[in-house]
Amino acid sequence: MEGPASEEAERRAEEHARGIREQTPAEKFPAVYGCTEDNPEPHFIGWRVDVDPDELFASGKAWGVTVRRVAVA
């Protein structure tokens, strides 16, 4: 192996030998954010699997609805 892949593998091997462990990135899940009558500032409303953003907006219960990928530990 040559080039960047080789250099990356070598770097990881050296870090592993020194006891440095690579942190695994947190998994990201789609979350629905928006504004509601109770809280006019954009805020977390629920997880995308539980909340339909289109239906939420169409019902008038929320506006400024967005779906963001949020890291979950």
Question: How is this structure best described in words?
Answer:
With 73 residues, this protein is of the alpha+beta class. The chain has a domain at 24-72. 29% of the residues lie in helices and 36% in strands. It has two helices and three strands. The chain has helices at residues 4-17, 53-59, and strands at 27-36, 43-47, 62-72. The protein has a three-stranded antiparallel β-sheet with strand order 2-1-3, covered by helices on one side. The longest helix has 14 residues, at 4-17. It is rod-shaped.
Low-confidence stretches: none
Mean pLDDT: 87
- How does the helix and strand content classify structurally? alpha+beta
Report the count of strand segments.
3
Overall geometric form: rod-shaped
User: Roughly what percent helix?
Assistant: 25-40%
**Strand count, sense and closure of the main sheet?**
3 strands, antiparallel
Count of alpha/pi helices = 2
Q: What portion of residues belong to β-strands?
A: 35-45%
Strand and helix order: HEEHE
Q: Could you tell me the radius of gyration in angstroms?
A: 21 Å
C-alpha end-to-end distance: 35 Å
Adjacency order of strands in the biggest sheet: 2-1-3
Sum this structure up briefly.
This protein is an alpha+beta fold and 73 residues long. Helices cover 29% and strands 36% of the residues.
Keywords:
single chain; 73 residues; alpha+beta; 3-stranded antiparallel sheet; 2 helices
